[in-house]
Amino acid sequence: xxxxxxxxxxxxxxxxxxxxxxxxxxxxxxxxxxxxxxxxxxxxxxxxxxxxxxxxxxxxxxxxxxxxxxxxxxxxxxxxxxxxxxxxxxxxxxxxxxxxxxxxxxxxxxxxxxxxxxxxxxxxxxxxxxxxxxxxxxxxxxxxxxxxxxxxxxxxxxxxxxxxxxxxxxxxxxxxxxxxxxxxxxxxxxxxxxxxxxxxxxxxxxxxxxxxxxxxxxxxxxxxxxxxxxxxxxxxxxxxxxxxxxxxxxxxxxxxxxxxxxxxxxxxxxxxxxxxxxxxxxxxxxxxxxxxxxxxxxxxxxxxxxxxxxxxxxxxxxxxxxxxxxxxxxxxxxxxxxxxxxxxxxxxxxxxxxxxxx
Length: 358
Prior knowledge:
Layout: H1 31-36, H2 41-57, H3 64-89, H4 97-114, H5 119-144, H6 148-171, H7 185-192, E1 195-198, E2 201-204, H8 205-223, H9 225-235, H10 237-242, H11 247-273, H12 284-294, H13 307-326, H14 333-356
Helix pairs in contact: 2-13, 3-8, 3-9, 3-11, 3-12, 3-13, 4-5, 4-6, 4-11, 5-6, 5-11, 7-11, 8-9, 9-11, 12-13, 12-14
């Protein structure tokens, strides 16, 4: 009598729990490297180092009034460095930003004074002119395909010549007339160039505007569709266009944002000093770009932040005023800035390579 036997499945013994192996694709980088990968961390550490350095080398920096002056100098750079940084993230440059500030101030001053108008008419006209310059720069870059370096270099030379020639033609001098007694001056000064006191220390309103603009720019970059468009067109505009990003609108609007910044800083200069020197502004564009680069914005576009240029502008203001408070020769200012720029670029390069190394 044969009996059939049914094979029973063997019971597999589960392996002992142990550390899960990770390959190079799934391994998580250490926290320190992930922190260093942020574009604004390096400049923050650099700003702290510069501050501590001058805190030791220049005792007057320790006073609250001195810090208010440093923040004021930083704000006049930082307000323009913000839109310049957004433009650089979008993959473009604007070498006309410095002289465009003066163009805006000259427009408002001469139009109001020569036509005996309320200064607000000149302010609005200057805004239109500044936005138009930004639009023209952006439109030429998009439509011609030429590098923005060449387009805005041409704009720089044109505006520099127009500023001098038109001012001499209209006023007979290289500077505009004093507009402090004209209608609307006091109201405009309250917005663009006023000050208030905190604990007995005079604080310029541009510091508040600087922080407000930085907060808005950060929100735009991190929380809006437009911010995604900026990163996309800076990374690869053809790929961005292929997925529906309005490349033309984004680039032109970024140049117009630089125009808006030039208008605001121009109005501050006008209502702070009541008059404008037509030959000023040359070289300021390099400071704005340097503040953005020190703040972590890549020259190739597609990466950066709005917070980084805030610290970059603070470093510039700290050095500019710190040299004075330390009693050093101010001729060293540009040399110091050059060292800071090269150092920031090298540090950013090292941080990126370290952060992406497996």
